[in-house]
Amino acid sequence: MSALPIAFFICWAIVQTALWRISDTGGLIVGLLIGLIVGMFFVRGSWKTYANTIFEGMTQPVAVTAIVAWIWAGMFAELLQDGGFVDGLVWFADIAGIGATLFPAATFVLAALFTTGIGTGYGATIAFVTLFFPAGILLGANPILLFGAILSGAIFGDNLAPVSDTTIVSAVTQDSDIGGVVASRFKYVIIAAIVALAGYVVAGQFMGGLEIGGNARQLLVAESEPVGLIHLVSMGVVIGAAVAGRHIVEAISWGIVFAIVFNLSLGLMDVDGIVSFNAPADAPVAEPLEFLPILTIVEDADAVGVGGSLINGAAGFFELAILVLLIIAAAQIMIRGGAFQAILDWSISHLATNVRNAELTMVGSAALINAVITINTAAEVAIGPYISKIGERFNLNGYRRANILDGQTAAMGYIFPWSGGVLAGYTAMQELPGEYEWFETGMLVTPIDVVPFVFQGWLLVAVFVVAALTGFGREYIIDRESEEVARL
Fold first, then answer.
1. Within 13 Å and on the Cβ side, how many CA atoms surround 19?
2. What pLDDT sits at residue 220?
3. How far apart are CA 390 and CA 341, in angstroms?
4. HEC string of 363-375?
5. pLDDT band at residue 479 under the 50/70/90 scheme
6. pLDDT per residue as tens digits for the range 286-343
7. CA angle, 464 as apex, 146 and 245 as ends, to 5°?
8. Neighbours of 147 (CB within 10 A)
9. Domain ranges within the chain, ordered by starting residue
10. If we measure between CA atoms, which residue out of 437, 446, 444 comes closest to residue 213?
């Protein structure tokens, strides 16, 4: 019964997003809140313990890490967007001849490289939805395919990046070194990526884009300016800092600093576009300081407030942050109540009867838990000890265990409509109609529609199923010091 709150939420999410096609984060929050309240009536013992477990889950570092990455990435992406980076992308794609059919494939490659550099798939998803998605729509790319390509690129990098939190957790929970894990993982990731890239190239030939009224598309492309491409340097700074071992918050902060400098020095933005204050006329020190470029005195009470790229970039993810905290809380109840352990114990007893079945069980259970605990790092922390237990039972190498664990974690975190990666991208997408006059709400891609087109995710799961069935890449404990790892 401790699985009731999260099961209620999943049913709610399926009805809301799949059956009613309402991809509203606020609605998902309400569904999970109701699930947590309903679960309270099935508590055996003290309701206080149930309430404390909710707080215990909401204060876990893995939840806070995801939220911080979203907020920082949101600010960074907003600065690049307001600084004309999308115009620069459109200009370059037009000059280079990267048309509608190839744009999703190119986006997949670039998103994969970017995510591998910075190590946060959620942050990369936000940046690419904010920047590459509108550019692709302008060029005539299919929006569903384009969103799927962005999510696929995030999966690639989240799974492979040495600085990714999921890479680190998968290695640590399986008692393996990060370098060896990444080296042994590459063969699985690249197989899925090659097939996924071919898939986006082929699908791009058959899936058309949306019509933008009149000749607006041609005018917008013609008016695009290359100066916004200066923010490739801003993105390069973030990647370089992350690869150099800097914390992701520090890396993105440096990107924000460079973006602000470029925007101001090149006249791409004014100071009040970055942060602005609208104060009422009766504010004590508003009039004496009205000369400040960031301060404006307004007569309309409804206009009072704070604006600009920084606050707009961060504010868009507040609802999603609340949802994530509640999901982790519901997952913690499932763990503390014993449902999680009961599922894992049953699978060990009934499914893992030999090494092949053991690996298939590891793949299936990791995928299942990630469907329930939709923040991939949290799911990995929860199931890591189980994967270690069943793998050691059959003398499987720590690298093999870590790769099976992280493959499903990376994939499923960007597939299900209620998963963190998908919701992060969709939340960023909902801000686009307010940013561009030509962008209509009908151009938004609902999370349920993109599910079949996250090619890298589905293929990565398929690769591990085949690997479990055939023994491809299987290593035992005696193979730990393989030549591949020794070179590192």
1. 7
2. 65
3. 13
4. HHHHHHHHHHCCC
5. low
6. 888 988 999 999 988 888 999 999 998 888 778 888 988 888 898 889 889 998 888 8
7. 65
8. 29
9. 61-271+310-486
10. 437
Q: Rg of the chain's alpha carbons, rounded to an integer? A: 23
In the chain, the amino acid numbered 360 is: L
Quick one: which of 182, 58, 375, 329 has its CA closest to 383?
375
Q: What is the 3-state secondary structure (H, E, C) of the chain?
A: CCCHHHHHHHHHHHHHHHHCCCCCHHHHHHHHHHHHHHHHCCCCCCHHHHHHHHHHHHCCHHHHHHHHHHHHHHHHHHHHHHCCHHHHHHHHHHHHCCCCCCHHHHHHHHHHHHHHHHCCHHHHHHHHHHHHHHHHHHHCCCHHHHHHHHHHHHHHHHHHCCCCHHHHHHHHHCCCCHHHHHHHHHHHHHHHHHHHHHHHHHHHHHCCCCCCCCCHHHHHHHHCCHHHHHHHHHHHHHHHHHHCCCCHHHHHHHHHHHHHHHHHHCCCCCHHHHCEEEEECCCCCCCCCCCCCCEEEECCHHHCEEECHHHHHHHCCHHHHHHHHHHHHHHHHHHHHCHHHHHHHHHHHHCCCCHHHHHHHHHHHHHHHHHHCCCHHHHHHHHHHHHHHHHHHCCECHHHHHHHHHHHHHHHCCCCCCCHHHHHHHHHHCCHHHHCCCCCHHHCCCHHHHHHHCHHHHHHHHHHHHHHHHCCCCCEHHHCCCHHHHCC
Tell me phi and psi for residue 406, to 5 degrees. -75, -30
